[in-house]
Amino acid sequence: MSWPVDWLALFGRPAPLYLEIGFGGGQFLLEMAAQRPLHDFIGLEISLPSLRKVARKLEKANLPNVRLFQGGAEAFLWALCPPELLSGIYINFPDPWPKAGHHHRRLINPQFLHLVATRLKSGALLEIATDHAEYAAVIHDALSQSPYFASQLAVPFLTQDETRTRTKYELRGLAQGSICHYFKWQRNAYPAPDAFPIPQEAAMPHVVLRTPLTLGEIANRFTPMRVTTETAALKFIELFQSPHEGRLLIDVYINEKPMSQRVGLTVCLRQDEKVVIGLHEVGFPRPTIGVHHAVRALADWLLALHPQSTLLNSNVHQSNET
Ligand SMILES: C[S@@+](CC[C@H](N)C(=O)[O-])C[C@H]1O[C@@H](n2cnc3c(N)ncnc32)[C@H](O)[C@@H]1O
């Protein structure tokens, strides 16, 4: 997918676009899409098994106005959605993370609402349902303190809504006597500064250097390491050496807002004795600035292993490491 996605091309028509975050069993998504054929719907789920199940249901339901995506809401909105794209977002029963030590994992917080505000059109809907009383209070605080939203109703939330399409989680909760909180809010016209620029891909990174060390000697000196740059946290996890080729593969985890990638960096010995560090294609990694920082950090480490090592050429973005 390009950053951002070409939504018009993906759906093949201009139509109001709605997003459901965390569709779970997919009932709500598919029912909404069936009821509103003139609107387009994106279903987003972090769980791959849920996505597969709903993809099978979608095939049978024959609904041309739905597309499913796997991923987390923050990265999805930030990287794939341009500002003022969406006419509405539904979040049904987001995980409440009830333990105090896990509250930071909750989806809804002031920073997330700011991101949501940038991706919604003025007047767009933001509907959230939860049966967790404490999370409902947190959501209420975050919505009422946000300058970007107003309730569609005279009250901040309803505890009964007979008109709505129920979700699987909701039906189970209601059967057990849970009290649900239904927030029906709306994006106002107050401008939200876009603090969430669409990430850019950089060129495929490479560093060329010369070192007296053999690949085996480099491999022996490797130990797992962490490097933090101004925009990325890098974890060099493990090094693998090919028994057949003049090549090393280093497994690296790159965490940079709004996403993380696990990539393989290669260290290749060319016939002219030059060593080239680059990005392996396995898993279709995106050559982001964080990937550039990883290639640069690996080159710096390798150059520091021997005083006669020299940097010959590089196209990587510089980074300030800590
Ligand atoms: C409690 S379940 C509710 C499922 C469904 N909405 C329902 O009401 O039956 C929460 C769902 O959100 C998904 N989820 C959790 N974090 C997410 C994220 N950051 N982005 C997208 N989906 C997420 C989970 O995989 C799970 O399916």
Question: TL;DR?
Answer:
The chain is α/β, with parallel strands linked by helices and 322 residues long. It contains 9 helices and 14 strands.
Structure notes:
- The chain folds into two domains: 7-187, Vaccinia Virus protein VP39 (Rossmann fold, 3-Layer(aba) Sandwich), CATH 3.40.50.150; 206-314.
- Helix content is 28%, strand content 29%.
- The protein has nine helices and 14 strands.
- It has helices at residues 7-11, 27-35, 48-61, 73-80, 110-119, 133-145, 168-175, 215-221, 289-303; strands at 17-21, 40-45, 66-70, 86-92, 120-130, 149-151, 181-187, 206-210, 225-228, 233-241, 247-256, 259-269, 275-279, 310-314.
- The strands form two sheets. The chain has a seven-stranded mixed β-sheet with strand order 3-2-1-4-5-7-6, with helices on both faces.
- α2 links the parallel β1 and β2 (40-45).
- It binds S-adenosylmethionine (SAM).
- S-adenosylmethionine binds next to β2 and α7.
